[in-house]
Amino acid sequence: MFILSEDSQRTEGRDAQSSNIMAGKAVAEAVRTTLGPRGMDKMLVDSSGEVVITNDGATILNEMDIEHPAAQMIVEVADTQEEEVGDGTTTAAVIAGNLLAEAEDLLDQDVHATTIVEGYHEAARIALEAIDEQVLEADVDEELLRQVAESSMTGKGTGGLTPAQLAETVVRAIDHVADDDGVRRDDVSLYTQIGASTSATDLIEGIVIDEEPAHEAMPSTVEDADIAILDVALEVRTGEIDAEYSIDSIDQLNAALDHEEQELRGYAEEIVDSGADVVFTTADVDDRVASFLANEGVLVFADLKKKDARKIASATGAKRVGALADLTADDFGHADRVRTDTFGDDELAFVEGGAAAEAVTVFVRGGTDHVVDELERAVGDALDVVATARDSGEVVPGAGASEIAIADKIRAEAAGIEGRKQLAVTAFADAIDVVPRTLAANTGRDPIDALVDLRAAHEAEGRAGLITDGETVTIDDPVDFGVVDPADVKREAIESAAEAATMIARIDDVIAAE
Prior knowledge:
alpha+beta, three-stranded mixed β-sheet, 16 helices, 49% helix
């Protein structure tokens, strides 16, 4: 009896488990060397020749052309990590890959997959308890947030700026959008512009959009601006049906043109009479309307993207108006300044201060596309982790110290677990050790020697990590050196890696249709 199509392919039992585990391990291995302050970059070239240079785990995995379904689960781990907490993507992927490697060894020892899954779940619970125990008692103040941002960006491409310099900008941005209810992360934007060194990166108290004035004679700066946002086309109205008009004389032609001129001038007069200083519209603006408004000193931006219109409305407090006749002063938003500036061939609009100051933009500069792209990823991750740390108020030691503590606690509690499940719990601890081992390998130290020294220092001092200072690598307390991470980054990495690894380990039958 044939149940499946003749074109279907089926892999069962240990062959299916081995195939899936091998795919997951391969993905983890692809990003392992990017981990830590001495991590290396990857150059990714797609079929069209586009080049991406980065050491961001999520970016690397998303740019790779991965087809194997089990390998795609590891990519999803990195994506989830990026979406939830903004950083730790490489850590999560590497842990997931090593959990699979440990599971493979257990399967070879005839430990059932269900036992492995149960052991991993128990170990993950212990790991989360260990993270709670590692949370620093100190208040998460601006200094600690700067350390979180700097730790996140160390080892990433930051151009001519140091992570410490960028951390100042990141913390100022998050501080600007934080209140008693938490951090409004969506009110912090990133805008990249090539053509200057990274030292020109700045924090704009407002928003930046890629738009230029509708007419060259319009003012380049408007102070104390009343802002109108329209979803209205400021051009001659046309009918929805095809129609032809017969003109028999020059007088009729002039009358038609005069009527058209009056209609367009009427649009401009309505805007001027409303008192708006700056107009953003998502539709087109006729050149004659733009000219009329330029003569009145009104600054207009036409054909705005809807997402930019929403951003400006949210930042300035303006209401979007769908009919010009409905426009009143009550619909206006406000900003201290709206200005335009030219960067090479690009002209940008800046909406600053006033109500717009509730939103901020990190204006990232760099000499090349590759530089600003990597800087954007680094700053974006730093913004996310600082927002996470500020919201939760919990940070833990970095530099591998938390992972050493997690593995130590899991091994200590594994002794009290009966049966073969104990083997899976211990294997989970061994998989967590991959983080300090990889950090050591990427700094040039022997990973086994470093792991032994870290464990000894942890037993003696209670906290120990790999501290990188220039060319020197020492084992010390990372908190003393300002190397800290949000606790939620560690929690998310453990949870998502464990979920992916257990899901893959339980698969013993793969049916693929061609």
